[in-house]
User: Fold this.
Amino acid sequence: MAPIALGQGFEYYSFMSKRGPKRLVTEAVRIGEYGNTSWHLVLECGHSFESKRKPKIGEDKLCCKECLIPKPKTLMQVFQDDGMLEEVDVMGELKTRATLASHFKVSMDQVELVGGTATVFLDAQQVRRITTD
Ligand SMILES: [Zn+2]
Assistant:
């Protein structure tokens, strides 16, 4: 699933102009000293860059080159894009992992859950404790 979603993302980016899509300025912070100031702008897409020109927040739209650079998506984003988030019961998985972790008296990091199959990683001491219980 992930490679397909990444491919689609790349296609989407290549369709856009080289200057980048226009993004609304949502925040601006003045930086530098008097006579040599610039503006740190935050765009609606979450990207930011510096500009010499004073922006009009909520009015100016600037081309965002950052948006042209495809970024590897996290698994959560891929699920979100595909509308598959509902099918992944994150809370349910966390609960299962927590239950297993407390059962084996290990930390949750030591419990891996993939496709409903759990793997519990135990160190030598924990193995001894469990097998001699
Ligand atoms: Zn951007």
User: Anything to note?
Assistant: Residues 1-17 have pLDDT under 50 and may be disordered. Residues 90-104 form the longest helix (15 residues).
